Amino acid sequence: MATREETQENDKRIAEKSLTIAMLKAMAPKTIFTRGEAVDGPLGINMTGDGQMLRWCAVLGVIPDWAIYVGRQEQSYEEIARTGDKVYDSATIRLLVPCDKEALGMYRA
Questions:
Q1: Rounded to an integer, what is the distance from CA 73 to the centroid of its chain?
Q2: Cα gap 35→10, rounded to integer Å
Q3: What is the dihedral of CA 12, 17, 19, 20, to 10 degrees?
Q4: Half-sphere exposure (CA, 13 Å, Cβ side) for 68?
Q5: Which DSSP symbol is given to 28?
Q6: Partner residues linked to 99 by β-bridges
Q7: Quick count: other Cβ atoms within 10 Å of Cβ 71?
């Protein structure tokens, strides 16, 4: 079991890597600020649950709001940002883009 100090240190490391309002405000509008691939299933994105690999990208809006879009593996990230399916589940959002409470509040639902 982790000590209190170890837990606090781990929380600090997670917070340093988490998306914040300040980070959102520092980016240019319509920026794809992170992207990746994940399995479409209960342990990944879980859009249809078919087990295929999907691509995703997080995009800043015109105001400091943001959203994550998902598409097929053969699509470019730019195409996914324009035409992909939006992720609505907060657990999946935080899995793909760790963020603090304020940044999560700016997610465009």
A1: 17
A2: 24
A3: 40
A4: 26
A5: P
A6: 19
A7: 20
3-state secondary structure 61-92: CCCCCEEEEEEECCCCHHHHHHHCEECCCHHH
Give the integer Cα–Cα distance in Å for 42 and 24: 29
| Collapsed DSSP state (helix, strand, coil) of residue 99 | strand
pTM of the model: 0.83
Total residue count of the chain as it appears in this document: 109
Residue type, 4: R
**Cα 6 to chain center, whole Å?**
26
Q: What is the tens place of the pLDDT at every residue in 64-80?
A: 899 999 999 999 999 99
